[in-house]
Specification:
With 375 residues, this protein is mainly beta. It has a single domain (2-374), classed as 6 Propeller (Neuraminidase), CATH 2.120.10. Helix content is 10%, strand content 41%. An eight-stranded mixed β-sheet has the order 19-20-21-22-2-25-24-23, with no helix packed on it. Strands 1-18-17-16-15 form a five-stranded mixed β-sheet, with no helix packed on it. A four-stranded antiparallel β-sheet has the order 3-4-5-6, with no helix packed on it. A hairpin with an 8-residue loop joins strand 13 and strand 14 (192-200). The longest helix has 17 residues, at 263-279. The N and C termini lie far apart (53 Å).
Length: 375
């Protein structure tokens, strides 16, 4: 149990079913190079290096919007969720560091439910915390699983989607089953499972756990019931769509060339994640070795016009393939002014209220939260 607890703690340091016969396949390989290329531009930023603490970020881990369009940012280092107006004016702060009611030790993920409550996951302090939209602490739901739900995104009827691992001993061998599933605050079992991967693992090779579970896939969901899951593969660009209940809706595939990482890029990526784990207090051995090729699909988003944004992991400049939810390739979008290896560390969230971004490895040495728009 101590070893398994270490695995849980290690992962907490990181700041993603049904019959295929019912799915609709959309082959877009022949149109990918023919679509219009549009620009994404930075319109504003929130964040300063020194000064007013309401505008200084320690470690942004997740961002979202309220239904009025206000911006929510989970700052893991500050142990709180900060709310701003669309113009960047401070509104309120939810939570603070501590172990008391409404306080956090290591908040790792956050989203807004359909009824406006803000949900924050902090397994170090006992589970899932909820705040009312006016910033009042509502309560804590103890985690019912043998591993925390992480990297949550909203779904229908106050449910949310996240990744979870289960651990079983089979013939004296540790078998991990990684899943992307839908939950609510009361269920003891996942409501719906969209992706699953079982693999054997020993405690000597953390890279297997990362590659087969935590970094194995990415997903996005929205409050209208759309769910999309994609493998983070170095040689396959494929996205599978589902209803909230797990019925397949569509499969989107794109034919793009794999991109090999340079030796410097591999070294920089390994250094970044090893340093990040150490800075967050890792108390065990960690020697992450990245894949030799970049991921085909980095992350995804769904905008107000029900378009699926798929970020290519192969590009240093943040680049999105944008599809209709029926699989039609609409256009490509590229973020202006961001390039080179540092572009790979930009996190960009697209939702029904706009586009938000921040860098995990900011060039200025301190984080800013950027608002973006499509030209």
């Amino acid at each position: 149990m101590k070893q398994i607890s270490f695995c849980l703690f290690f992962f907490l340091l990181f700041s993603a079913c049904g019959s295929s016969e019912q799915s609709v396949s959309s082959e877009v390989a022949d149109t990918a190079d023919e679509v219009t290329v549009r620009s994404i531009v930075v319109t504003d930023s929130i964040g300063i290096e020194l000064g007013d603490s309401d505008y200084v970020f320690g470690s942004i881990e997740a961002v979202d919007h309220t239904s009025s369009g206000n911006i929510l940012a989970l700052d893991r280092a500050a142990c709180s969720v900060v709310e701003y107006t669309p113009e960047g004016e401070f509104v309120q702060r939810m939570g603070r560091a501590g172990s008391g009611p409404g306080e956090f030790l290591n908040p790792l993920s956050m989203t807004r439910l359909s009824d406006e409550r803000v949900v924050i996951m902090d397994i170090n302090n006992g589970g899932i915390f909820t705040y009312l939209p006016e910033g009042v602490y509502e309560g804590k739901t103890p985690v019912q699983y043998n591993e925390p739900i992480l990297f949550i995104s909203p779904s229908i009827e106050n449910t949310f989607i996240g990744t979870i691992n289960s651990w079983d001993l089979v013939d004296e061998e540790l078998v991990v089953t990684a899943s992307v599933a839908r939950f609510d605050l009361l269920s003891e079992e996942p409501l719906t499972v969209y992706w699953e991967n079982a693999f054997s693992w020993d405690f000597q090779d953390i890279s297997i756990l990362l590659k087969e579970s935590y970094f194995a896939q990415t997903w996005i969901s929205d409050r209208r019931g759309n769910v999309f899951v994609a493998p983070r593969s170095p040689d396959e660009y494929i996205i599978n769509g589902f209803t909230a209940e797990g019925e397949p809706t569509i499969t989107i595939e794109l034919d793009i060339d794999p991109v090999e990482k340079t030796a410097d890029e591999i070294a920089e990526e390994a250094y970044f994640w090893n340093r990040r784990a150490e800075s967050m207090g890792s108390n065990g051995p960690f020697n992450y070795q990245p894949d030799e090729n970049r991921w085909m699909v980095h992350s995804m988003g769904i905008d107000s016009e029900e378009r699926l944004w798929v970020r290519r992991g192969t590009e240093e400049t943040p680049t999105f393939d944008v599809f209709s939810l029926e699989g039609e390739y609409l256009f490509k979008a590229e973020l202006e002014g961001v390039g080179g290896p540092r572009g790979l560390f930009w996190e960009i969230r697209v939702d029904e209220f706009g586009i938000l971004a921040y860098s995990l490895d900011p060039e200025d040495g301190y984080q800013k939260l950027y608002t973006l728009e499509l030209e």
